Amino acid sequence: MGTLKLGKYLTLNDVCTCTQTYHKYRDRIDPFPKNPDETLPALQRLAEEILDPVIDEFGIDRFRLTYGFCSADLKRYLERKDPATGRRHGRVAPNLDQHMAFEKNTKGNYYCKRPGAACDFYIINLPSDRLVDWICDRQLPFDSLYYYGVDRPIHISYGDEHKRALWTFDAVGRPRKLKR
User: Fold this and answer.
1) Which residue has the higher pLDDT, 17 or 82?
2) What does pLDDT average to over the chain?
3) What is the DSSP secondary structure assignment for residue 81, as one 8-state letter?
């Protein structure tokens, strides 16, 4: 399953195993979708509509995926605190951020009510504000794009809405919608 190509460049393994938390706990985390009939097409559309054009422009050697698909196992570890630091491994908002795509909880409900898939990435030697400008100038059909700063990865989602909502966050994490 992991070798499945999602677009021209990335495999399912690439988008399921890119987080630091996965690498730290890889022996305890199943990173792959449990609802592949719905989740895989969503990940493929994200790759084809958003990631492939970015990689076409900037090159696969400069592209760095930092957070892709979030399985239920990975979600549990991201929510836990690191024993050494006392801080959570990651910030997750599965009901909002589309990283879990079409995965379902134990009650059979989607974790995220917004259809689609999401990932976080950056381009080596390119400030993230310039990456955001390039994506917007090309009118890529994203749902939401989160900009965290020039030296941080961006978050981008793709789904049926194509609402092209741009968000930035202040120093304490409060969101602010941008107009473009």
Assistant:
1) 17
2) 90
3) B
pTM: 0.90
pLDDT at 135 over 80: yes
Question: Tokens representing 25?
Answer: 């706990």
Distance, CA of 44 to CA of 68 (rounded, Å):
12
What's the one-letter identity of residue 16?
C
Q: Which contiguous run of DSSP H or E holds residue 155?
A: strand 154-158
Indicate left, alpha or beta for 139 from its phi (over 0: left) and psi (-120 to 50: alpha). Answer: left
Beta bridge partners of 122: 64
- Say if residue 89 is exposed, middle or buried (CB neighbours under 10 Å; 0-12, 13-18, 19+): buried
Q: Which two tokens stand for residue 40?
A: 């895989």
Query: Is residue 170 classed exposed, middle or buried when 0-12, 13-18 and 19+ CB atoms within 10 A define those classes?
Result: exposed
Q: What pLDDT, in 10s, does the model give residues 109-131?
A: 999 888 899 999 999 999 999 99
Q: The tokens of 61 are what?
A: 């050697």
Cα dihedral: 96, 109, 142, 178 (round 10): -20
- C-alpha 29/C-alpha 23 separation (Å) is 9
Report the relative pairing of strands 165-169 and 144-147 from DSSP bridges: parallel
